[in-house]
Amino acid sequence: MNNGLLTNNAGKPKKYFTILNAYHAFTEANKEYGPKGVIPVSLKVYRNICEEFNEAVAEEILKGNEFKMPGRLGNMRIVKSKTKMNPKKLRIDFNHFNKTGEKIFHLNQHSDGYKVRWYWGKKNCRVKCKTFYCFKPSRENKRKLAEAMFQPNGHKVFQTYY
What we know:
With about 160 residues, the protein is of the alpha+beta class. About 30% of the residues lie in helices and about 10% in strands. The chain has four helices and four strands; from the N terminus they run ααββαβαβ. The protein starts with 18 loop residues before the first helix and ends with a strand.
């Protein structure tokens, strides 16, 4: 018995909720609307709609806008903060180290010393145990953010986070 939780083959709870899980929930909720149980949308069409929507939202966030999620699920944005010059917390430039043997640190000089990250604001989020949930951006969205930061004055579009 799974009590409404998503489980894997061994009966353990899954870590991630995928588009396929959302599609199954969508078709289950909309069975009564189709003629004689016909699925209203195919998986391929459903996936394309979700992917296009997610790409459009990511593009707006990368322009410096904030996306307020429906159903009081919080908001998504990119925040920036000044890099602290603590040698214990700075990242080593391993490319330079492997070539020369000299240890230097990444100082984010291309962005005037700012670092940025994707941020899910859960302050007004209406979800139980919200501290257990996190947002992990896709590799593609991380790369797009890095590309935006290397543009001239790329960091000036984003809000400062203290």
